[in-house]
Amino acid sequence: MVIAAWALGIGSCWIGDFKEEEVKKLLTIPDDWKVVALTSFGYPAIPSGAKEKKPLTEIVSYNKF
């Protein structure tokens, strides 16, 4: 969903730290269900363009640091 949203110009944020009981109450999720993650979606205030990639030599090392 996150990748598909980005392709449509929609930003997102994966959320893994939240108060599960409050989320269940707010979204009327049954007690026997477990909420493991949330994802928010929205249009960025400032559209992000393509970012320049670092050269491979800056991010990869072989058999040493």
What would you say this structure looks like, in words?
The protein is an alpha+beta fold and 65 residues long. The protein has one domain. 26% of the residues lie in helices and 15% in strands. The protein contains 3 helices and 2 strands; from the N terminus they run αβαβα. It has a two-stranded antiparallel sheet. The longest helix is centred in the middle third of the chain and has 7 residues. The radius of gyration is 18 Å and the shape is flat. It starts with a helix and ends in a 6-residue tail after the last helix.
Give a short synopsis of this structure:
The chain is α+β, with helices and mostly antiparallel strands and 65 residues long. The protein has 3 helices and 2 strands; from the N terminus they run H-E-H-E-H.
Descriptive tags:
65 residues; alpha+beta; two-stranded antiparallel ribbon
Unreliable spans: none
Number of helices: 3
Tell me the number of strands: 2
Rounded average pLDDT: 91
Topology of this protein?
Layout: H1 2-7, E1 11-15, H2 20-26, E2 38-42, H3 56-59
Antiparallel strand pairs: 1-2
